Amino acid sequence: EVQLVESGGGLVQPGGSLRLSCSVSGVTISIYTMNWVRQAPEKELEWVGSIYTGGTTKYADFVEGRFTISRDNDKNTVYLQMNNLKPEDTAVYFCTGPSRGQGTQVTVSS
């Protein structure tokens, strides 16, 4: 059974940082493009960024250089480093690839 489990969310003040992790089991992530998406309250799911099998990354425009996606194929884990967080980044963050995780809540508020 393929499982993706996100962790690392929480409450952070504007300008703060968080690192989300997505631990995958049941399949090796090395053959998958892995993605982060998010869903804010009463909004549609929104793509945040992707990391391809070769390590190349792409991001949504709103990231503006604040987020970095990385992967550790040996640990079968994908990361989303988020810096300079803004209140509008508040959302449930999901990783996707061979499946989708249950998400982790990120709240940016003073």
What can you tell me about this protein's structure?
It is a single chain. With 110 residues, the protein is mainly β. The protein has no helices and ten strands. It has strands spanning 3-7, 10-12, 18-25, 34-39, 46-51, 57-59, 67-72, 77-82, 91-96, 104-108. The strands form two sheets. The protein has a six-stranded mixed sheet with strand order 2-10-9-4-5-6, with no helix packed on it. A hairpin with a 5-residue loop joins strand 5 (46-51) and strand 6. It is globular. The chain starts with a strand and ends with a strand.
C-alpha Rg (nearest Å): 13 Å
What is the spatial order of strands in the main beta sheet? 2-10-9-4-5-6
Which runs of at least 5 residues are low in confidence (pLDDT < 50)? none
- The N- and C-terminal alpha carbons lie at a distance of 40 Å
SSE ordering: EEEEEEEEEE
Shape category: globular
Number of helical segments? 0
Number of strands: 10
